[in-house]
Amino acid sequence: MRREPAPAANTEGRLAPSLKNLNASVVMLVTRDGGLLDDNRGYGRIFNPGDDVRSLFIQPRFDEFAARAPTDGVIYRGLLTLGRLEAQSASFDGTVYEEGDHLLIVAEPDVQDMEETISRLQSLNARLADVRGSFPPPFAQQRSFRDSLLETVPAIILLLDPEGRIARINPYMEGLCGYLDSEVAGKDWFTTFLPQVGQAQGRERFREAMAVGASSRHVGPLVTRAGALRQIEWYARTLTDERGRVTLLQVGHDITERIAREEDLRRAHDALRDSGRRKDEFLAMLGHELRNPLGVISIGLELAGVLTDTDAVVRNRDVMRRQVKQLTRLVDDLLDVSRSTRGSLWISRQRVDLNDIVRGAVNDIQVLADGFPHALSLAMPRHPVMVFVDPVRMTQVMVNLLGNAAKYTPAGGRIDVAVEPAPEGVWVRVKDNGVGIPSDMLETVFEMFARVDPDSHQGHGIGLSLSRAFIEMHGGTITAHSAGRQQGSEFVIRIPT
Predict the structure, then answer these.
(1) What is the homologous superfamily of the domain 17-140 according to CATH?
(2) Do 17-140 and 154-254 agree at the fold level?
(3) Which of 18, 354, 375, 396 could form a disulfide with 385 if both were Cys (CB 3.0 to 4.6 A apart)?
């Protein structure tokens, strides 16, 4: 025999036990002028029995609320604010029904957690089903509390039938995916909204959720009408209505941007870790770079006290001069690194002949590289190539590029330097047939402390970074080109005229 549902309130203005015993929800039966006829445990948990109901309504005020209260259920999400004082108020998801001449108000605390939302939805929907049949006739056409929640909650809500067909999507999901509920109702969820590669896994998850029935969580893709791929964090649970029909309720959040932010943070973390590693390698290399010239200078000073042959003295002095110049260049680079990190690098431009700068850099590098065991070609126009640059900084850039070419090209190799005027500026090319650069490092080599071979003691990993900084301060560009390891490399500078 079918049990008749209990009334929401009796003729004496008392709540039915099914509502009276609710502890998580605030239920009150009030007159239209604000008199409290009855309340439940949830009301007593938050408010005092002697509180004036009218004073509890902060937004909207009770008079406004009562005046617009309709004959069917309407959810006031974020607008129904209750409390003794505004400073102690709270927002509720509230539903109001007419119960004879009175108002039945059911208010759920505003819940952000999807698990708790689903749990309360199930509990409250089941209890309201017990009193549904006792309302006046107009209530038979009212939307259920669950339907009202579907239309107002700011989350993706999806209902699937036992075959995985779409039974309902809410307006929030309509806005995200670009489909109307009427367009997708009855369609297969997996082929309509999942990418082809994820459909088999989606069906398997669906079968498991329907079989287990308990709450589950997963992250999966959703394809919008426009073809955009969004990542959704889903919470799923089965629902059973009063007729025993089972549907799968899925509540989701779009976490596409959150995943992108997490990926950005991961890349930033990796970059920071790599930067720390490069700094450690740089410090180890710096000790080597300082020790070698200091050792040569120390030996030269010892020899200076015993050498008597004039030619030997001159050679010894030249060796020490080259080592001092190398140390000075290294210290200058370190000072420029410090200025670069503080954003205080500067240039002093003047009108100069670029040919003179390139020739001077070639002479400098031949002095620094003892013996310079490479074949070097220098191609420049016969006429001056006038540019507006800082000659000291441009010389530093050229010495860095030529020094790298000399270091990373085996003895007997070839280095080609060319100055090429062009309508959009001047191109300077430094090309060698040395060890080359892997394709994945053609951009990385310009980062501070970056080196193609971290295990090598050649290069200190700051010259190219400073070179790019100086060239860009002139409004120019510098790029690296290589066919790969052992294929040589070419650095190309473009300077505006």
Answers:
(1) PAS domain (3.30.450.20)
(2) yes
(3) 354
